[in-house]
Design goal:
Layout (H helix, E strand, L loop, with lengths): L3 H11 L2 E5 L8 H12 L3 E6 L5 H12 L9 E6 L7 H9 L5 E5 L6 H11 L3 E5 L3 E5 L3 H17 L5 E5 L2 H14 L5 E6 L2 E6 L16 E7 L2 H8 L1 H18 L3 E3 L7 E6 L2 H17 L4 E6 L2 H13 L8 E6 L2 E6 L3 H12 L1 H20 L6 H14 L1
Parallel strand pairs: 7-8, 13-14
Antiparallel strand pairs: 1-2, 2-15, 3-9, 4-6, 4-7, 5-6, 8-9, 10-12, 10-13, 11-12, 14-15
């Protein structure tokens, strides 16, 4: 969480509401470790631009949108097993959106059946990886949480046609998905259904009559990232056009090779482009990587992520309309029905944040130095030069 003093200073300088600085997410593999280190080293700030209203109704609407109404039968019951808090939790955001890790899928049959082998084939056709399998249970890793929920609905329908009630659940790990299935049966009963999390809450879809879908297929979502260099004219004036080409080419190559992005409309020497990604987590990570890379090269970007080119571009342009005291390097994206943004602060801002968060003794010493310096000058009638003490203190803070 943000130190209250840090939060107020960030609010004062940006006119925006900060949720967190860095991340509390605990990494479990090399990729997660790399991102957590970058979040914390650059003291990346998560801002709330438009607050999401998280309710049971909005969760259901988001589910319909993400899974696709065509992949839902007409009759089902939606259960709220544990309500989500009406706020965005930074840890859950990094875990479920940025890392995209909540995608393990557990399936349980009430008794041994050859149906389990048919389910395996369906999951593998959906590019799922079978992790464990027995005559009544299986654990798979799917491409996304939404794919897992969609496939769960499909196989539950098949089970109902065969008179086999299938219980399933989605979780961050295989063990978590099994535990969620246990909670489901304890709260709902042994009815066919799928349990899952959304924005920190726990929910379930329950089916009590046979159904058959026309064809279950992934919802056709496009995830676009619009990137534009802030004040490219100033950057060229300071560093030269070749440096701009080098910077944008570096971002382009990284997006194509490391983030599975496809660039559209890129012109060598230009200061903006748009890219398409297979999933939202890859688009956000590409935006963050681009912002970190740009910062490393003395530049700032505005980036927007959306389901269409226009939506991504509008979110990037939103950066210009924010009532901030200076241009912010932001990656803007939608979460539930709200808008949020990651900000990569400047080196000076990071220094101030670090002083407040981790070096309070040094901060007190700086304030004491400024106070004494100004006081001594005022005794000699030179109080108008007190600003020199502030400048010296800031130089010391940055250099140290």
């Amino acid at each position: 969480m943000v130190n209250s003093l840090t939060k107020e200073l960030i609010k004062l300088s940006t006119k925006l509401n900060p949720i967190s600085v860095g991340t509390k997410f605990f990494p479990t593999n090399s990729v997660e470790t790399e991102y957590v280190e970058l979040f914390n080293y650059t003291q990346t700030i998560l801002f709330e631009l438009e607050k999401a209203e998280i309710t049971s109704e909005s969760i259901l609407e988001n589910l319909k949108r993400d899974v696709g109404v065509e992949n839902l039968p007409e009759n089902y019951n939606f259960y709220e097993l544990k309500a989500a808090e009406n706020k965005v939790e930074e840890y859950a955001l990094v875990s479920n959106i940025i890392m995209g890790s909540d995608r393990y899928f557990y399936v349980e049959l009430p008794h041994p059946s050859n149906l389990i082998n048919i389910l395996v084939k369906i999951i593998e056709n959906e590019k799922g990886l079978i992790v464990e399998k027995s005559s009544t249970e299986l654990v798979a890793r799917m491409l996304s949480k939404n794919d897992a929920i969609r496939v769960a609905i499909e196989i539950i329908g098949i089970g109902l046609e065969e008179g086999v009630p299938i219980i399933s659940a989605v979780g961050m790990t295989g063990a978590a998905s099994i535990e969620r299935s246990i909670n489901y049966t304890q709260n709902v009963g042994n009815f066919p259904g799928v349990a899952f999390t959304k924005l920190g809450g726990e929910y379930a879809l329950v089916f009590d009559e046979p159904f058959k879908l026309m064809q279950s297929k992934p919802k056709e979502f496009q995830n676009y990232l619009f990137i534009d260099l802030i004040d490219s004219t100033g950057f060229i004036s300071k560093n030269g056009r070749n440096k701009l080409v080098e910077l944008m080419t570096g971002i382009k190559n990284f997006i194509e090779t490391e983030c599975e992005g496809e660039l559209e409309g890129y012109r060598e020497g230009g200061d903006d482009f748009i890219a398409r990604f297979p999933s939202k987590d890859l688009a956000i990570r590409a935006g963050l990587d681009s912002a970190w890379f740009a910062l490393d090269n003395g530049a700032k970007i505005r980036a927007g992520i959306g389901r269409s080119r226009r939506e991504a571009g509008e979110r990037a342009q939103l950066v210009d309309s924010l009532n901030s005291s200076s241009p912010l390097s932001l990656v803007v994206f939608e979460l539930a029905n709200g808008l949020y943004a990651y900000n990569i602060p400047s080196e000076f801002s990071r220094t101030i944040i670090d002083l407040i968060e981790n070096q309070k003794g040094k901060l007190i010493g700086i304030f004491a130095f400024v106070f004494i310096f100004v006081y001594v000058l005022s005794i000699f009638g030179l109080g108008m030069f007190g600003f020199v003490g502030i400048v010296l203190a800031l130089i010391y803070a940055v250099l140290s």
